[in-house]
Specification:
The complex is a heterodimer of chains A (239) and B (48).
Chain A lengths: L21 E6 L3 H13 L4 E6 L13 H18 L6 E2 L3 E2 H6 L5 E5 L16 E5 L7 H10 L4 E3 L1 H9 L4 H20 L15 H11 L4 H8 L1 H6 L2
Parallel strand pairs in A: 1-2, 1-6, 2-3, 2-4, 5-6, 5-7
Helix pairs in contact in A: 1-2, 7-8
Chain B lengths: L14 E4 L13 E6 L2 E2 L7
Antiparallel strand pairs in B: 1-2, 2-3
Classes of the chains: A alpha/beta (239), B mainly beta (48).
Chain lengths: 239, 48
């Protein structure tokens, strides 16, 4: 590099509000599993990532640890963020035993997801900030889990399958609502600038376009504008 | 809406008839009374 300065034109600026505050305590385990987890957690908009050493973690061969691996986690998170159009990279904290990890977390709604949990699906209080501790592959030992409940204020215990379901599709209402708010604001902005708006849908459920139209009115368009968007604007757009 | 078409006898048009005014409430677009495709009423009973 010989140049000392560089001028950059900023053409577009996106404002992406941060999602609800969720701190993830992830199990140290197999490298590939951890990388996949890092990707999913980034897509879900988690606030922070801290690997936790569970008892079972110590027996895993080829586990994801060390500074080089932290670099790989970060790179995977960045690509997941780019692909999902997110704006907030989870903050990566150094690994710690569970007690220390919880002590370093903010006062929060604490949840443990563990494959061996007996409680089954309990209702989770949807309050934030939230700390979600994930048990290791194969689950926690019974005494280890009991210790979490008794001494570490981990209120609700869910099987890890619940998290797997979450990974498949983001069903978190808070996230979905936050995402809708962004879309609604963008739509209102475009509408106020007289952009030609055309109703579309990729849903195959009955009335999907109608729900879409209702959301557009909720976002601030008038019913007449929405009906034009759903009819003549589409015809014009297609010529 | 001066640039849109008109509905007259012997013209071809695609349109729907609603039971309530969609300008009052957009959810009224779900209250479909009948559907016309190229000027002819569509029998919707087979779709239900």
């Amino acid at each position: 590099m010989t140049k000392r300065s560089l001028t950059v034109d900023v053409e577009q600026v996106w404002e992406i509000p941060a999602a609800a505050e969720i701190h993830m305590l992830v199990p140290i385990g197999d490298r590939d599993r951890m990388l996949t987890l890092a990707e999913k957690i980034t897509e879900l908009g988690a606030t922070s990532w801290r690997p936790v050493v569970w008892r079972r973690s110590k027996s895993v061969e080829g586990r994801g640890e060390g500074p080089t691996f932290v670099g790989k986690i970060r790179a995977r998170m960045i690509s997941a963020l780019t692909q999902s159009g997110g704006g907030w990279l989870p903050e990566i904290h150094p690994s710690a035993p569970i007690a220390r990890a919880l002590a370093a977390s903010p006062a929060a709604n604490r949840i443990l997801l563990d494959a061996n949990a007996e409680h089954g699906m309990l209702s989770v209080s949807n309050t934030f900030p939230m700390v979600i501790a994930l048990g290791p592959e194969g689950g926690l030992a019974d005494d280890e889990r009991q210790q979490m409940i008794d001494h570490l204020e981990l209120g609700v215990v869910l099987p890890a399958e619940a998290f797997a379901a979450l990974q498949k599709g983001n069903t978190n209402r808070a996230d979905a609502n936050a995402f809708w708010q962004i879309q609604a604001r963008n739509l209102a902005k475009m509408n106020s600038l007289n952009a030609h708006i055309v109703v579309g849908t990729d849903g195959n459920t009955p009335f999907a376009p109608h729900f879409e139209m209702e959301d557009m009115v909720a976002a601030g368009m008038t019913p007449a504008q929405v009906i034009r968007a759903a009819t003549s604007n589409g015809a014009q757009f297609l010529g | 809406m001066t640039d849109t078409g008109t509905i007259e006898a012997n013209k071809s048009a695609d349109f729907i008839v609603l039971d309530a005014n969609p300008l009052d409430n957009i959810t009224n677009t779900r209250k479909i009374a009948s559907v016309y495709l190229r000027g002819a009423s569509v029998d919707r009973s087979s779709y239900k």
